[in-house]
Amino acid sequence: MDVKKIARKLNLPESRINELLERRIIKTISDELFYFAKGISGIESGTFIFCKDDIIEIIQGYPKIRRAMVLDACIKNHFASIPVVAVEEKMNGYNVRVCLLKNKIYAITRGGLICPYTTEKARELIGYNFFRDYPHYVLCGEMVGPDNPYVPKNIYNIDSLDFFIFDIQEKNTGYSMSVLKKHALLKEYELNAVRFFGVYSIPDASSKIMQIIKELGAIFHEGVVIKDPEMILPPIKYTCSQSNCIDLEYAFAFYNDYGKDFFFSRVVREGFQSVELNENDIQIKERCCRLGESILKPMINTIKRKKSGKRIVEKVQIRVKNLETAKQFEEHLRNLNIDAIFESPIFINGEYLIKIKKIYQSTNDKTEAVLKGQTW
Amino acid sequence: MDVKKIARKLNLPESRINELLERRIIKTISDELFYFAKGISGIESGTFIFCKDDIIEIIQGYPKIRRAMVLDACIKNHFASIPVVAVEEKMNGYNVRVCLLKNKIYAITRGGLICPYTTEKARELIGYNFFRDYPHYVLCGEMVGPDNPYVPKNIYNIDSLDFFIFDIQEKNTGYSMSVLKKHALLKEYELNAVRFFGVYSIPDASSKIMQIIKELGAIFHEGVVIKDPEMILPPIKYTCSQSNCIDLEYAFAFYNDYGKDFFFSRVVREGFQSVELNENDIQIKERCCRLGESILKPMINTIKRKKSGKRIVEKVQIRVKNLETAKQFEEHLRNLNIDAIFESPIFINGEYLIKIKKIYQSTNDKTEAVLKGQTW
Asked: Which residues of chain B does A288 touch, with a Cβ-Cβ cutoff of 8 Å?
């Protein structure tokens, strides 16, 4: 690899690049592909580097969006310097950056790896029209739908998989396009954008957004992202209680594979939301039961499944035009240390549906050991 | 300190003692007192060393008792080599080892420090009769009651504070007396023992214990400890759902000061208990609501308190004969980095009642910041 060229492009000394390579903060995918497995000051985790011959391109890692816990106070605090905020839907899928490398479309996941399945989908769903005119832009969006092998969801009325763009960034700098310009451009190229609720003045925003949150919660959607329309200040996110609880349900089905932080932060959100909504005793009781059920019921099901001799798996699926993509995706999951069993492809309407069982080994092992009498 | 003497007594090389001192695993309280701040192979955390002139005495740290998650399987697995188990109540207070040092009674807390308040109480409650005859024994028990400044509880119908012994160990070796002999000896000296439910055969034990657990749960007591009557195999513990939930209530009132593990392990217990009890949908729903309420309600209260400008504190109290003890106890809490405000003593029935507010700084700070709009 050309350390000198990468160093120049990232504006870091060569010695620093060598150190980051040694510490495996920059990881090598191939002779020409690299990514930041962790963030460092000024460079996000998941930042992707393509470096071949004279070409070097950086796709900045997608920044983590900070979460509002108390909506009203947070909007007034975070956006104190601007008059209005733009509100978009936060969809529940996986975050992908789609861009052109060597004149071909690639889809990069949050972590900084090219996902072969997502790449096949991005080529179908987005196509080359936009990139012919704007090769230096990165389309950042959410892949959602039931054929999503990372976070499958049936809540969006999508048959297979679709891509909803929430951000257009420049290659290298990672600068974001303003919200209105982005929506206009996506409309022009007939590309899907996430739902845009509108622009609200700071004093009005929290009550408007709380209303949106209630409506989204009722249909089990995730929440919103609140943005500086000019995309100078970083955005913040806020989610529905129902979505929190769905996350918990999912995580507690595989209770020993998920981090305790995952759980804890979601519980704390519920507390602050209840206080902000000024809930009465009946509403609090309902929220408590909803929380308790989303924690305990999936765990009880998991324990019962294991007790009856079954394996604890998550069933997901992909749908591909090309079986080679499925093979590459299998390899991709192996690289991510995800233990998955691919069933035989089923040919439907010109595509192959492949069912996949993801195995949660830690939850399997722990549950089995405890059922056999192991102490905690 | 006499490293050579301590090394000989602990059966470790002198160099190892020096290393443990350097790494602050053995910590120095005074010229003659030391304790293990962490456990090492063969020596429990909280092990206490008294070393003066020709005398050296080791009070072994009280071992952590492993927890049964599935009662029936765990009893059959853990106690496979013996025919019967003894069952005692596990009380909810704090674990103290009371022993004679230089002919005076001292009370050592779990961590390995002498607590001046507990020492005053131990001298009153236990007295010297037992120790005159058995100076080489350590009385291990639970300090419980409303005047317990660590874990105050009103569930035991105790006016102030009382000491319930669950184990008699030898100094130095830490060997435990058999269960029946212990209860006989405590009766002889009119010392309080924890409640002894009886001895059960292994096949019967889990159904008998589950019945005890239900009864203890109904009166909000904590649970049981299941022991090899000969005290050769280590004991195991099992607790009531109600007690789990009370713990959670307490911890979530100070949600940012408590470990996420504290929470997680308690939730997992609930899942396994529900499956073992073969609960129906209504019982599961009740358990879920109970769990959810014990998590969210205290957190909501904490957030509301902070919102109304109040400080998040825990109110505890001590009752002392001697004001010097209170002063020493204040110093003791400072050494433990516990932030506490002592109110002026109130003289009642020949004793001083002192109300104490423990301040949970992390929960105070985090709640305040989030209410002011800080992101998570």
From this structure: 289, 292-293, 295-297
